[in-house]
Design goal:
221 residues; flat
Length: 221
């Protein structure tokens, strides 16, 4: 039952992320809202709107768009900036718990690590990077279904999180779901064409792609 739930969650994730990639930025002609009405009356209103600072999430989305078009040389600093913006959404206590969870996982103390990750989620469950952090811990502990559920929740909110996509693709390969892994890999390449191996313990992108192709070739039609 747990595995079926994990697969269902992943299927929903792929549909949602794929739709977000394919959907145009704007559809139809927007109606004249309150802000537009004010701008039509006041010549200074549009100037104020133009100088309104972007939110953290808006800045992150713009960065993700740039990463999707970046070259191998341009992408790394953009990825670092995007990751910093994700972390900036965490409060001090949440960030401390995430660091504690990562430190415990590095020592293979996975129960303590997951407890810290779950406590971080209790504080800020709306921040997708916390979900991704716990997913990595669960994956390290061998709880692939739990990790996929966390990654699905992460990517539903932040579909441009290429680290989460990379981990998800590898997890689906571990769960003997090469077709799903291949689909996730395609999404990752759309989001970040020059994406390298982020975690040193995971295979490089080229080796991973070969693993997916080998598993797909070995399956009966």
């Amino acid at each position: 039952m747990t595995k079926r739930r994990g697969l269902s969650a992943c299927a929903v994730l792929l549909c949602g992320v794929g739709a977000s990639i394919a959907a145009p930025a704007h559809q139809g002609t927007p109606s004249l809202g309150h802000t537009d009405a004010v701008a039509a009356v006041s010549p200074h209103a549009d100037v104020k709107a133009a100088h309104k600072p972007l939110t953290r999430v808006e800045r992150l989305r713009l960065l993700e768009e740039r990463i999707a078009k970046a070259s191998v040389e341009e992408a790394p600093p953009l990825r670092e900036e995007a990751e910093a913006l994700r972390m900036r959404g965490l409060k001090g206590g949440t960030r401390l718990l995430v660091f504690e969870a990562q430190a415990a996982a590095d020592k293979h103390q996975f129960q303590a690590a997951e407890e810290s990750g779950t406590a971080a989620l209790a504080l800020q469950g709306d921040q997708p990077i916390v979900r991704r952090a716990r997913a990595v811990i669960r994956a390290g502990a061998g709880d692939f279904d739990g990790a996929v559920e966390d990654l699905s929740a992460c990517l539903a909110v932040d579909p441009g999180d290429t680290k989460a996509l990379y981990v998800l693709a590898n997890l689906e390969l571990e769960r003997h779901q090469p077709q799903i892994a291949s689909d996730v890999l395609k999404l990752l390449k759309q989001r970040d064409p020059s994406f390298p191996g982020v975690v040193s313990s995971l295979p490089t992108m080229e080796r991973f792609q070969k693993q997916v192709e080998l598993q797909l070739d070995g399956q009966p039609d």
